[in-house]
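Exercise (ungraded).
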Amino acid sequence: MEALVETNYSIDTFYFLVMGALVMFMAPGFAMLEAGLVRAKNTAEILTKNVALFAIACIMYLFFGYALMYGNVTEGAWIPGFGMGIGAENTAAEVLASGGETYYSARSDYFFQVVFVATAMSIVSGAVAERMKLWAFLAFAVVMTGFIYPIQGSWSWGGGALAAAGFSDFAGSGIVHMCGAAAALAGVLMLGPRAGKYGEDGSSRAIPGANMPLATLGTFILWFGWFGFNGGSELKLSNVDEANAVAQVFVNTNLAACGGVLAALLTARALFGKADLTMALNGALAGLVSITADPLSPSAELSVLVGLIGGVLVVFSIVGLDRLKIDDPVGAISVHGVVGIWGLMAVLLSNGDASLGGQLFGIAAIFGWTFLASLAIWAIIKFTMGIRVSQEEEYEGTDISECGLEAYPEFTKS
Amino acid sequence: MKLVTAIVKPFKSEDVREALSEIGIQGMTVTEVKGFGRQKGHSELYRGSEYVVDFLPKIRIEVAIDDGQLDAVVDAITKTANTGKVGDGKIFVSTLDEVIRIRTGETGADAV
């Protein structure tokens, strides 16, 4: 019996670690996707943002975030208890004494959770691309990953007010994706559109990305990493029911992405007359975000449909936000925010434990908190160090102005 | 001496190069350029926003030649670069004041 407890502990810890590593791989996924969709002159800067935000997220979550989100949360509470650090590890004696109730390493839990924080943060980097000051962004990242994200995370996964209200979000369509999108939206509103994006007559000028192969690679890497994102969120592997559940999650996650790709591609074809690759890529991600709130309870067939609807929504959302003059170079707000909301509602299609009221409450709380808190922080940064590069710097490119080097030194055209 | 500048469609640049080699032209400079004449551009949609492609890619070939070669060169370029469709390009002929070979210092016809 003891050996079984220890073996299950090892399996489930290993599972967390490997799934966490898969989600970590979403960091280069985002980096490549964003690098592909911005102009050549802004590529090194967005890569720097992506590398640095991952590092900031892990360290801030280590010191402040993890403790805020999980350390000291009163059931049903809005205000989490303050704490620091990631606590002590389980000893073998404690694990055996628990009879298997404690079934994974505490460190592995931190590791698995921290990569989700980094994912939420990286959503912001795409929306504010090509005109934000690098250090202003990193300053925001410090606050977002240390405080804004963990506080709303404590309400649901930490056991606080949203958990008590019956809010259901398996892997984070709302807690991670919509949260990131809300922060991004606040940032974009504070920042303004890229120079030259919108004409005086209200028209929107296309600013094509520099590297479609990278954007595609990034999307596929994100798709791959998402198996960890959703699969790992089952939180346990070591018995038949759990193993089956994980398999269902992998299958549903994959199929939702597939539905998203095809729906977005067909929608783009219908609206624009041609097969816009960038829309197909956003469609894949939209499918993935759609299923993330519940990749377990739907059937495989329903998962295709959930992803499909996300794929249609994302195309219209991208065009719609553009019409509202909200400039989002990679479609992050649409993919993660608009579709994140759809994902939370889609839970109701297959999960009897979720309620319309609970989902709406969660959407309002997470979006409201994240958007307003982010708006305040962006405003503070804007009125102290400034958040936007100067017009000359935007023209010459943030690679030069923020990083002092060029991503494509021999390919660049002025 | 003349400088012949030809703007041609990119996929024709290899054919033009071969044709010039055949009539004894031993050197040229090629640059990738953009431009338009009567061909104008076309518009595309990128993520729902219009994207006007006004400037079309072309290849610019420059050859410095002796006056005597002019007709043969113009003829070779015209015949190979012609597709009959709008956007085939143009040839500009200008007079060269001086030509110098950097390695040897030769000037004039010896340097062409």
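Further reading is listed at the end of the chapter. For now, observe: The mean pLDDT of chain A is 96. The CA atoms of residues 3 and 131 of chain A lie 57 Å apart.
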